[in-house]
Amino acid sequence: MSNGWIILLKVQLMSFFGINELRYSKDSKKRRSLIIFGVSIIIVGICAGAYSAAMAYGLVSMGMVEIIPAYMLMIISIITLMVTMFKTNGILFGFKDYDMVMSLPVKTSAVITSRFMMMYVLNFLFECVVIIPASIIYAINIVPEPSYYIMMIISIFIIPLIPMTIATTFGAIITAISCRFKYKNLLSILMSFGLFLAFFYLSMSSKNLQVEDVANLSSAMMQQINMTYPIARIFTEAICNYNILAFSAFILISVTWFYVFIKLISWKYNEMNTALTNHETKRNYKMKSLEISSPFIALYKKELKRYFSSTIYVMNTGFGVVLLLIATVFIAIFGVENLDTLIGAPGISAMISASAPFVIATMISISCTTASAISLEGKNLWILKSSPIKAKTIFDSKIAVNLTILLPTVIASGIVLAIRLRLGILGTLMIFITPIVYSFYIAIVGIFTNLKFPNFDWTSETVVIKQSGATLVSMVVQMLSVIIPFGLIFVIQKELSNYIVIGSTVVIATIAVVLYSYISSQEL
């Protein structure tokens, strides 16, 4: 089947967006969930587009309109690189319906292409939201030739290819190495986080921009972008100077890179997926005395083991905790005042000093494990339903796992910031109390949204963990819960920041108690 990958892609997209369920389902609750999911996507898209436009407008106001195309290319490529790397294991490798898909009369390359194109479509939609507003602002200020619009429209389809193939190559290497070992999931998690830390270190250790005027700043930023992402030089030459030869080179490099990638991955694709689905067994099994524990402890151990057995689960929900740990270690060694130089954002240290509890809360708000914890039970949910265990105990065990991930880092970060920022008694208390309250709130909101928007008919963990309605709604709610009080501190006088922190903490704690009382009365 020459068009086999197109058919497979169509099935995946219809499943992801719930098109058939929306059209034919008579379950009003399910249809309502899909509509809310769609509205949440639109809200996130509007926010991303507004942020992109604001960044482009900022560059225009600084007299650096000429670097907008290269800057947006780099931003999109970095985000695509990081997001795709976390999706590889779950969409391209180790997906649930691997045996069924590989039994179809299609080539291995068609399966790989369809899986890759699934990631491409999702990244493409995000790219459009980011690059179109910035491109419009660039065009308004430059008034380019007609060829600009043609090249930009074509480029939108080409830009994701290189960062996606690079990220997927890293994912394939990690998968190929880890699948040869007994503890392949643990090794995959460690290697993935190691790669992320290496990328973070390289980006932070790059040459700082030391400039004295706007003209030098523009030149220095362009040089830095070209050093970070060399293909940006070709893209800038094509878009800004209307160079057809450079544009052709940009397309040729991107498409060739993608073609070579598909051929190389096809070579060992079956072997890697087979190795991922195999399980290590012990031959010298010996009967030992059985341990007895309470239902809660037994479920907690099960949930914790389930969490660390999934690379995609840990990578996506542990991202915020890792960022917080990196920031904590840096502040402990160098002090908060050096963050201005490291990040290249003057005033960041003052912002952290004024709103330290919300800085911690912001980072942990993207580390919610409970938003997909119920859905991940999948078709095994009947086992929990038929067991003589209260639903509240099941929910509590899932909340406990999230708290296990968050609280140690929150406490460690609170200690470091309290010492380094030389906070007073009230500030020291709130830098612990507020993030701890947010930790409970995040875990409880995750369970609440997953109860409202469950998804048990998944074929890939990635769909549930990264792309489900529960995950998206939970993320939006939690981020707004941090951003609103965060913004109030800077809108209102900073002298009132302690009152805002206390008031927000009380409100969040109240919401958490109300939601917990609600979910405690619910059934699976």
Provide the descriptors you would attach to this structure in a database record.
mainly alpha; 2 domains
In short:
The chain has 524 residues and is mainly alpha-helical.
Task: Please specify the SSE layout and strand pairing.
Layout: H1 4-17, H2 19-24, H3 28-61, H4 68-91, H5 98-102, H6 108-142, H7 146-158, H8 161-178, H9 184-204, H10 214-228, H11 231-241, H12 244-277, H13 295-308, H14 311-317, H15 319-334, H16 339-343, H17 348-354, H18 356-364, H19 381-386, H20 391-420, H21 425-452, H22 461-467, H23 469-491, H24 497-520
Describe the structure.
The chain is mostly helical and about 525 residues long. It has two domains: about 30-275, no CATH class; about 295-520, no CATH class. Helix content is about 75%, strand content about 0%. The chain is built from 24 helices and no strands. The protein starts with a helix and ends with a helix. The model is unreliable at about 205-215 (pLDDT under 50). Keywords: Membrane, Transmembrane, Transmembrane helix.
